[in-house]
Amino acid sequence: MLFKDKSAIVTGGTRGIGREIVMMLAEEGANIAFTYLKSASDAQILVKEAQSRGAKCLSYQVDVRDFDKSKELIEKVKLDFGGLDILVNNAGITKDKALMMMSRDEWLEVVDTNLGGVFNLTRNVIVTFLKQKSGLIVNVSSVSGIIGLSRQTNYASSKAGIIGFTRSLAREVAPYNIRVNAVAPGFIETDMVSGLKEEYKNELMKRIPLARFGNAKDVANSVRFLLSDAAGYITGQTIIMDGGMSLAL
Ligand code: NDP
Questions:
Q1: Which residue's alpha carbon is nearest to atom 19 within ligand 1?
Q2: CATH code for the structural domain at 7-248
């Protein structure tokens, strides 16, 4: 068990990639606090499932766009779990649209959730990590933030921002034994991707050398590695798992 008795926060744990990360942490012996926005019943089911693996697991309804609520969350989790060792910033949304049709609200909502959420949680965790001179952070970016994807100017900007945030913070907190890394998944089969049109999915598939969409386990496996001692000399990096989609021709 890689994370026995460590305490972790995962944002957006109820579905897709976040859910798989919660279960991976449970299987590796961690105690887990996860957040969600709306899916209260999914949250209850996941808490039970993680607890059945022997983990302490609690869910918290917190909008990652809310700085003050994020601060309250961190203080609450520290009390509920007796400490905090790991933060996985996973919560994210898309509102894909051609730029010429994109409203300011669609821009702001995506950037505020995806990048603002990373700031809100990390800003409120970092003092604890600095004081204890240890901590592990993994941020969920996207291949869209690296290669750019049409109709995703809002999303790609937020995800590229996460990579810059990761690199800067990694430098800043390395002297305090805190590692900060990111993962950049390609197309992963979750609710976020199931809404895409079949034609577009077929088009995308042609651009993926491994000829399949990824699954949430592919992402959780990389998160496990980055959080483990096996990655003890890795900080400020972004691991891409996209079936080779971002490789240059
Ligand atoms: P899903 O849409 O399946 O799940 C999103 C999760 O984020 C849910 O738990 C949701 O909570 C939560 N969430 C959304 N908005 C907020 C908010 N404002 N405050 C708190 N929680 C929120 O997404 P995926 O699992 O597909 O994606 C997870 C992460 O991976 C995202 O950051 C995404 O950008 C990234 N990613 C996904 C890819 C993919 O192909 N799926 C590819 C590359 C990156 P609730 O259930 O309550 O709504």
A1: 63
A2: 3.40.50.720
- The answer, yes or no, to whether any atom of ligand 1 lies below 6 A from the CB of 90, is yes
Specify whether the CB–CB gap between 35 and 15 falls below 8 A.
no
Q: What is the pLDDT of residues 72-92, one digit of tens each?
A: 999 999 999 999 999 999 999
- pTM equals 0.98
Query: Domain residues of the chain, as ranges?
Result: 7-248
DSSP code string of 231-245: GTT--S-EEEESTTT
Ligand 1 midpoint to CA 32 (Å): 17
Contact 34, 22 (CB under 8 A): yes
- DSSP string for 21-64: HHHHHHHTT-EEEEEESS-HHHHHHHHHHHHHTT--EEEEE--T
Q: Is the CB of 140 under 6 A from ligand 1?
A: yes
